[in-house]
């Protein structure tokens, strides 16, 4: 598998392991789309490759693929393959309103879920910032390979923006998964349902679709795993109109 430092594009190897019965996934630039067969049943596939930077064109192309799946194949499971370095940092994209394009992608995935499509995401490369939030984290459940590189932001960049000393952030990262990179920390926070280790990927995907949750249990899982201790309690309090006392 691709290491966290490897910039190579291994989507074809991943697709071959996920869909040993064959697939028709096509790459157009940094965007993946098409269909595949899993246990004899068709699934739609949408994703990115090559550590894609999500600009307006990439966001629109992914959204189009999700909308096409809803129109042409109602109820068909959708598999999201995630490999992104996050939002593309260009003036052109900012001036065009990249935040709205990315929000559009997230809304399309949410609509697919509401219309009965099981949406399962797999981080097989990188997953950073908004590119991850509006794709993998919008799925019913998100999984990752052990060597996936997942983080909100690199600590040096976080230090420059927040003006918190890097040494302090590194210290916080040792005990708080919110600050720390890696799939293990996102598993603790509930962002990932599981890390696929030591099992055939097509079997793991079959089980993920079978167990696909209809409700969002991530906050509760984060509390159970000790990664997000207050999110679930705050959500429940808002729903019930109660006040939450911070510890």
TrEMBL record:
InterPro entries, alphabetized: ClpP/crotonase-like_dom_sf (IPR029045), Malonate_gamma (IPR009648)
Matches recorded under SUPFAM superfamilies: ClpP/crotonase
Lyase is among the record's keywords: yes
E.C. no: 4.1.1.88
Keywords: Lyase
GO biological process, one term: carbohydrate metabolic process
Lineage: superkingdom: Bacteria
Lyase found in the keyword field: yes
Molecular functions per Gene Ontology: lyase activity
Enzymatic class: lyase
Protein name: Biotin-independent malonate decarboxylase subunit gamma
Source organism per UniProt: Pseudoduganella rivuli
Source organism phylogeny: Bacteria, Pseudomonadati, Pseudomonadota, Betaproteobacteria, Burkholderiales
